[in-house]
Design brief:
The protein is an alpha/beta fold. It is built from four helices and six strands. The strands form two sheets. Strands 1-2-3-4 form a four-stranded parallel β-sheet. α1 runs parallel beside α2. The longest helix is centred in the middle third of the chain and has 16 residues. The radius of gyration is 23 Å and the shape is globular. About 5% of the residues have low confidence.
Length: 154
């Protein structure tokens, strides 16, 4: 069965979803729709963009078809472990692999050493190397607290 390939690029955020959603809805009217989204050029994706992908995948499944993602950018990959439903979308390394549903091209969970990109809706967590801030030392070698200089010794 043939599939429709659509390449998305730029921002997949709240302001652009309203433009993209009707196009995707139009592609899902056929029985058993097969849709491949090339998301390699998506530079930013927020919760609204991730929700759109999950929603489109669900609608395609309801009609007996499926949505496949191809060549996900770091902005899209960051949502695989965060957004509910994203892990249920078949994701392939290449557009060709997605078109053929090649199991060798199917992407799995990211390797434990690979750190996913930060999601744009979440500020980066402030962590300290040893769980707490380090004390500063002034040039004279005397310890100072975070509240100000050390009091003079008597």
């Amino acid at each position: 069965m043939s599939a429709v390939v659509l390449a998305l690029h730029g921002l997949l955020v709240e302001g652009t979803v309203a433009t993209i959603e009707p196009v995707l809805e139009g592609l899902l009217v056929a029985d058993e729709p097969r849709l491949v989204l090339d998301v390699s050029q998506v530079t930013v994706c927020d919760t609204t963009g991730a929700a759109l992908l999950v929603s489109v995948a669900g609608r395609a499944r309801e009609r007996g078809g499926e949505l496949r993602l191809a060549a996900p950018s770091p902005a899209i990959r960051s949502w695989f472990t965060v957004a509910p439903g994203m892990s249920g979308i078949a994701t392939f390394a290449t557009v060709e692999g997605a078109l053929e549903a090649d199991p060798h091209d199917l992407l799995g969970e990211p390797a434990p050493r690979e750190r996913p990109a930060e999601c744009v809706d979440e500020p980066p967590a402030r962590t300290f190397p040893h769980g707490r801030p380090r004390w500063r030392v002034n040039p004279s070698g005397r310890a100072r607290s975070r509240r100000g200089p050390a009091s003079p010794r008597r």
